[in-house]
Specification:
Rossmann fold; CBS domain Like; 14 helices; globular; binds adenosine-5'-diphosphate; binds magnesium ion
Length: 324
């Protein structure tokens, strides 16, 4: 879907922000760029929708060079969410969301219905929110509107640059959870930038770790937890309190299901956690709620409580003995 071929970016001041990046972001993938401040994440993201020109190399979307797209067509088909979302303060929530759909001339009814659907889907009651001004919303609610605005015209790709990093921990966790569910439903390609390892592990189908403009490791959360490519990755995991020696980050929801540590049962809607999610992440969520729903092989199968996790981990300790 999005392919980087030997992409570099050198700013006019000589700063080599991105060096020889080759990547293939798949259709429908939740792809996360992570790395310390200044490693080139934002630059990489902004090259995708041509907010920043490449110095050398090529980026393809659906095998067509981004430079061959009409710039408006390209931007309209790529949603963009920033850390501090810039909603227009004098416009209502509805007007803010309608900007791109109006540009591409959707009819009024279609826009109205789309806004209703999207606001409701991120937990904002459409009828009570659509006519408010941004100042009448909390930071977390504004950020939800930012996500809705990026999705409004039904783009195939959504770029998100540290979208939740300015939020308080509770709003942030809630939005992360909602993002997982939302992505499961809309199945768009999401390219997400963060400097928070927990967030990356929770959201990413794959995580691309960057350092000084280069890709250090690009893999699934589990593979990164279990086989960090080098000391830099290891330190990065540790700085996020994600310790690969920690038992709970070695195992996933899949392992718990396989060994029967869950309560089978009906789940309404999509499950909270997919198979590949580390038990560590589930455990964190269980600090805030009694039970979480889980899926196995793409199907919601039941729930996990803290009790299940404790019993499961105790079993692994017993089983692995000295190896742990
Ligand atoms: P990140 O998003 O990972 O924090 P950036 O992509 O913003 O990193 O920046 C990568 C590097 O490029 C940094 O060293 C930064 O100082 C530099 N940089 C970013 N934007 C510009 C610019 N417009 N001109 C010159 N240097 C820049
Ligand atoms: Mg940045």
């Amino acid at each position: 879907m999005i392919r980087f071929e030997n992409v570099t970016k050198k700013y006019p001041n000589g700063e080599n922000a991105v060096k020889n990046i080759d990547l293939n972001i798949k259709d429908g993938e939740f792809f996360v760029f992570i790395g310390p401040s200044g490693c080139g994440k934002t630059t990489t993201l902004k090259m995708i929708n041509r907010l920043i020109p490449l110095t050398t190399g090529t980026i393809y979307i659906d095998e067509k060079r981004i430079s061959d797209y009409n710039i408006h067509e390209l931007r309209w088909n790529i949603g963009y969410v920033l850390q501090q979302i810039a909603l227009f303060p004098h416009m209502t929530i509805e007007e803010n969301i309608a900007i791109v759909p109006e540009l591409i001339r959707w009819d009024k009814d279609k826009i109205h219905d789309r806004i209703t659907e999207l606001l409701n889907s991120v937990g904002l009651d459409a009828e009570s929110y659509r006519n408010r001004k941004p100042s009448e919303l909390s930071g977390g609610e504004q950020q939800r509107v930012g996500v809705v605005r990026a999705l409004a015209a039904d783009p195939e790709i959504i770029l998100m640059d540290e979208p939740f990093s300015a939020l308080d921990p509770i709003s942030r966790q809630k939005l992360q959870q909602d993002m997982i569910v939302l992505q499961r439903r809309i199945k768009k390609t999401i390219v997400f930038v963060t400097h928070d390892m927990q967030e990356a592990l929770m959201l990413g189908d794959r995580i691309c770790i960057m350092k000084d403009g280069e890709v250090v490791q690009c893999d699934t959360p589990n593979e990164i937890l279990q086989n960090p490519a080098n000391e830099f990755v290891q330190n990065f995991l540790e700085s996020g309190n994600v310790n690969k020696h920690l038992l709970s980050s070695k195992f996933t929801v899949h392992d718990m299901v396989e060994q029967g540590y869950f309560e089978a049962g009906q789940v309404d809607g999509d499950a909270d956690f997919a198979d590949r999610i580390a038990v560590e992440i589930v455990l964190q969520q269980l600090a805030n709620q009694h039970a979480v729903s889980i899926e196995s092989d793409g199907k919601a199968v039941g729930t996990i409580t803290q009790q299940h996790v404790i019993q499961f981990l105790a079993k692994q300790l017993e089983r692995d003995g000295e190896r742990v």
